[in-house]
Amino acid sequence: MFKNDIIKNNLLQQETPLYFYDLRLLEKTLDAAKKAADKRNFHIHYALKANFNDRILSLIQSKGFGADCVSGNEVQKSIDIGFPAEKITFAGVGKSDKEIITALKHKIFAFNVESIQELEVINELAGQVGEKANVSLRINPNVDAHTHHYITTGLDENKFGVPNSELEKAAAVINSCENIHLVGLHFHVGSQITDLNVFKSLCVKVNEWKNWFEERGTYIKVLNVGGGLGVDYKYPDENPIPDFEAYFDIFDKFLERTSQQEVHFELGRALVAQCGTLVSKVLYTKSGVKKNFLILDAGMTELMRPALYQAYHKIEKIGEEIAGVQKLNYDVVGPICESSDCFGKEVELPPCKRGDLIAIRTAGAYGEVMASNYNLRNEIRHYYYE
Ligand SMILES: *Cc1c(COP(=O)(O)O)cnc(C)c1O
């Protein structure tokens, strides 16, 4: 798409930097995910934290997805966009009293609870506001997601979930709490997982813990296996839509369940990453002693992933490629006063000049949502392709 001169000319009229959202691709991606899930009677809650842009949320809501939230404001946002309360879940290790009360008042489907103390607090607050709270217990399955250590969440040393050694006590606390009803078990092992064997290992753990509870007479209605399905950052054009069939198939095959038990997923990145591109203009080119630099008008304030966890994003020059032009290696950097403000090193690109447009691909997830106004930067702009 970014080889197209019409798009280039459209974008040249816009003030940059901007987030370009391909709503057609988003719709195709959502349809593929929904179709693969429906076929197996699986339910998907979209993880809002990946991208809470209104246009994107509205499209996702209109397709019948639920919402997976990690703050009271995300719960409120989901309600405002039109997600039905019975399709909203609320996770996170540090829910404040105020956030819990917001969620209770909206009668959301369930809290994903991460500690015994949190169970007790939800029970107490539910009593105060006269509500009953559905909870799913987040279990740390100790499965290595084989992804970046900052986005690995399901190991014993991570802060997430109730440790296995405390589950006996958690089950007893749930039984003694009047205002709490256990609906399910919740797991989430990490993000950007591309090795489907990780999910196979997760299924084994889910089966074990489900059996553990059922042996103790506690019926588990919902198995929530979290999100984490990865996308192809290297080849966004070749693989614009993740293989949802293969992903759901793993759970269909390996998760033990009865026809009454529901399987819930919380996908974020897999649904929205590929539809987003950060579009930026070259402000300056500079040849250092050893390097060529492209200095862009976008920086870590618009897309933090490279600075935060050395994430790779494909970088392209926008517009028609001229055959036979010798490419150059550039360090592509932003204007922010931090050395980590760099989108890519030694990136091979056709020769670039001031005013050229650059696309930083696969930026639809954990991009715009992490934008900041550090250096008192402008608010981010948008361009919707529909
Ligand atoms: C972040 C998060 C997700 C979504 O993860 P993706 O990798 O974007 O699919 C799902 N569940 C929980 C609990 C999360 O924290």
UniProtKB/TrEMBL annotation:
Out of the domains of life, which is the source? Answer: Bacteria
Query: Which parts of the sequence bind substrate?
Result: R269, R305, Y309, E338, Y366
SUPFAM superfamilies referenced in this protein's UniProt entry, alphabetically: Alanine racemase C-terminal domain-like, PLP-binding barrel
> EC no.?
4.1.1.20
Q: What class of enzyme is it?
A: lyase
Q: Which reaction does it catalyse?
A: meso-2,6-diaminopimelate + H(+) = L-lysine + CO2
The Orn/DAP/Arg decarboxylase 2 N-terminal domain covers which part of the protein? 26-273
- Amino acids binding pyridoxal 5'-phosphate: G228, E266, L267, G268, R269, Y366
InterPro entries assigned: Ala_racemase/Decarboxylase_C, DAP_deCOOHase_LysA, De-COase2_CS, De-COase2_N, De-COase2_pyr-phos_BS, Orn/DAP/Arg_de-COase, PLP-binding_barrel
**Matching HAMAP family, A to Z?**
LysA
Q: How does it assemble?
A: Homodimer.
Spell out the family assignment given in the record's similarity comment: Belongs to the Orn/Lys/Arg decarboxylase class-II family. LysA subfamily.
User: What protein am I looking at?
Assistant: Diaminopimelate decarboxylase
